[in-house]
Each structure stands twice: as structure tokens, then as C-alpha cells.
């Protein structure tokens, strides 16, 4: 764990923690890769990398089933029946592959028992976010969940973090925000006036795209957050 001077020695001030979901609580990238491989195996053509790119560059959003439709059309094998089967295969395989990072459940349980509030801020849909939280068995620990669906906002808008603070009824400077993405998670949380923690273990953003952003803390496992907020 690395620390800047911004929040050193201030653990006692924290009254809440805000977490990102994908690649912070669980390895969503690996789950998506596994699901794409299942689809490619099903149809017997193309590559998982090409399907992943179809999702990433889809104008309908990175989780839209229309990415699979575009992928099948590119391979000249699209038909409604195959499309529906591929979508269901993708959804099931992705959910099965989502596993919480080591220590996530135990850490959130300890934070909850200590009386600190826990919020989540994510760009996932409300439906997907709730499904994933229930799947990794931590939904019960959250005091608020902020998504584009229920807030009308999207990261990297710092207003999303301020909205979460309002729902938690905690001042921003009393919140420790943790996320894997320096651009989408760390910078807007800093702009909102929160102490920030970079989940390096889940980071998939190449350094050249990080725009020189530095978090107050960097951690190599989720449980490291306990030392930062004074619970270990």
C-alpha cells in the first residue's frame, strides 16, 4: 500500500466508504472475457478478442446485446435464433464467472459492523449492479447504490459522488472512495472533496491514459482499506 500526504493520519475522520463495483469488488474484466469465449465456442467462429472489442466500441453501450448482433453480422452468420442463444450464453457465463476479490465480503462486513456507512457508485445499470451485488453476497452491506438509472448521472461526473454523499448524509471530506479507474473513479471523487483510494489490483487502464491522476492511497488488495479507515 502506498500513501500520499493528503490523508495521512486522518483515519478517525471517516464516517463512510464509497466503492466502485466492476474491477473493484470483483474482476469484471475476466468475467467478460470468459463470457465472450463461451459465445465464440458456441458459434464456432470468430475470436473472443473481437467480441470484446464489439462490446467496447458499441454505440449502444458496453453491455448492450446489440454488440453480439453486430459480431454475428460481421461473421455473416446472424439469425434470430442464434442471436438469442448467444445472448443467453453470454449472460449466464458472465454471471457465473463473477467472483468477489479475496477479502471483499469480510472487509465490508467489518466496515458495516464498525458503524461506517457504505455506498456504491457505478456506471452499470441499476439491474446489473443489483444482480452482481447479490451474486457476490454483499448487497446487504450497502446503504446506497448510485447508478445512471437512478441518478441521471454518469462517471466521471463528480456530481455522482456528491449525490451518494447526500444519500449517505455524510460530508464528502468524511468519505473514503475506492475505485480501480483513475479517470472514472479517482478524479471525480477528488473533485467532490473525498479521500481517494486506487484499487491497483483491478486497474486495467494503461498508464498513458491515466492523465497524471494520483490517488491519496494505492492498495494491492481490497482489505487494505481497513488500515486506511482505522479498522486495522
Automatic annotation (TrEMBL):
The protein's required cofactor(s) are namely: Mg(2+)
SUPFAM superfamilies reported for this sequence: HAD-like
Q: What is this protein called?
A: HAD family hydrolase
Is Metal-binding among the key words of this record?
Answer: yes
Pfam families, per database record: Hydrolase
Annotated keywords? Hydrolase, Magnesium, Metal-binding
Listed GO biological process terms: small molecule metabolic process
Extract the Gene3D superfamilies matched here: 1.10.150.520, HAD superfamily/HAD-like
Can you tell which superkingdom this protein's organism belongs to?
Archaea
PANTHER family tied to this protein: GLYCERALDEHYDE 3-PHOSPHATE PHOSPHATASE, N-ACYLNEURAMINATE-9-PHOSPHATASE
Please name the source species: Methanospirillum stamsii
The UniProt similarity line reads: Belongs to the HAD-like hydrolase superfamily.
Any one GO molecular-function label of the UniProt entry: metal ion binding
Q: Which InterPro entries match?
A: HAD-like_hydrolase, HAD-like_sf, HAD-SF_hydro_IA, HAD_sf
Amino acid at each position: 500500500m502506498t500513501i500520499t500526504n493528503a490523508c495521512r493520519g486522518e483515519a478517525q475522520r471517516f464516517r463512510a466508504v464509497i466503492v466502485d463495483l466492476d474491477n473493484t469488488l470483483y474482476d469484471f474484466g475476466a468475467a467478460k472475457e470468459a463470457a465472450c469465449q463461451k459465445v465464440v465456442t458456441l458459434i464456432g467462429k470468430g475470436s473472443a478478442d473481437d467480441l470484446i472489442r464489439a462490446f467496447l466500441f458499441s454505440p449502444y453501450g458496453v453491455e448492450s446485446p446489440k454488440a453480439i448482433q453486430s459480431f454475428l453480422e460481421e461473421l455473416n452468420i446472424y439469425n434470430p435464433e442464434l442471436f438469442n442463444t448467444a445472448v443467453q450464453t453470454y449472460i449466464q457465463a458472465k454471471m457465473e464467472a463473477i467472483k468477489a476479490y479475496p477479502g471483499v465480503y469480510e472487509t465490508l462486513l467489518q466496515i458495516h459492523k464498525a458503524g461506517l456507512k457504505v455506498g456504491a457508485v457505478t456506471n452499470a445499470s441499476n439491474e446489473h449492479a443489483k444482480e452482481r451485488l447479490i451474486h457476490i453476497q454483499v448487497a446487504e452491506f450497502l446503504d446506497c447504490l448510485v447508478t445512471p438509472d437512478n441518478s441521471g448521472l454518469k462517471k466521471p461526473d463528480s456530481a455522482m459522488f456528491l449525490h451518494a454523499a447526500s444519500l449517505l448524509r455524510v460530508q464528502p471530506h468524511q468519505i473514503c472512495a475506492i475505485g480501480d479507474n483513475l479517470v472514472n473513479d479517482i478524479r471525480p471523487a477528488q473533485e467532490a472533496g473525498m479521500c481517494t483510494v486506487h484499487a491497483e489490483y483491478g486497474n486495467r487502464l494503461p498508464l498513458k491514459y491515466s492523465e497524471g491522476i494520483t490517488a491519496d492511497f494505492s492498495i494491492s488488495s481490497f482489505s487494505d482499506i481497513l488500515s486506511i479507515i482505522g479498522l486495522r
